[in-house]
Amino acid sequence: MSLLAIFSQELARIGGKPHPAESLEQAAAIYADICQEAASPALRVRWSTSLLETLDKEAVEITSRDRDEVIRLCAQAQIGLTEADFGIAETGSLVLESGPGRSRLASLLPPVHVAVLPLGRMVPSLQAFTERYAREENARHLQSMACLTFISGPSRTADIEMTLSIGVHGPQALHVILLKDA
After folding, report:
1. φ, ψ for residue 119, nearest 5 deg
2. Tens digits of per-residue pLDDT, 13-30?
3. Digit-coded pLDDT (tens) for 89-132
4. Are 95 and 86 in contact (CB under 8 A)?
5. Can you list the pairs that 23-32 forms with residues at least 24 positions away whose Cβ atoms lie under 8 Å?
6. Domain range summary for the chain, segments of one domain joined by +
7. Global model pTM greater than 0.85
8. Distance between CA atoms of residues 162 and 76, nearest Å
9. What CATH number should be reported for the domain whose range is 3-155+164-179?
């Protein structure tokens, strides 16, 4: 089974929605459909990357260093658009590096999180991720990064009676656009 198939299967199992895309044009169409489902044209926020600008020029780009402003924007947004740095196939998890122009709040506060994952960034396991990450990342990059966030499906929590609730402490929906040509 391919890494894409394993990732998609595991992501769906934990409540996320995989969307394979053969091209940027197809990714943009998938993203537009997700936005329409989520009551767009509501406020959308996105990280500051050229790939995400291509998908949504109208979304508010998170560039401010003013934490209160970033919190306000992300809390009001209906959709948060991010670019995943890695995908871990065995768990269907995403890895996102936050830092300047890449506030993790864009993936945590809006009710819908849409992540774009270039397939070249897919790894089979957590061990493979740590090995590749240690090999690829350099000191300059690590100095500008605030933290790594691992995302495994939409937000979920359970009370003492084990009643499961989705989206109480984060996004109610997680969509991952799996981009072949990035």
Report:
1. -65, -20
2. 989 999 999 999 999 999
3. 999 999 998 888 888 888 988 999 999 999 999 999 999 998 88
4. yes
5. 23/180, 23/181, 24/51, 24/54, 24/55, 24/179, 24/181, 24/182, 27/55, 27/116, 27/177, 27/179, 28/54, 28/55, 30/177, 31/55, 31/56, 31/81, 31/114, 31/177
6. 3-155+164-179
7. yes
8. 30
9. 3.40.50.10420
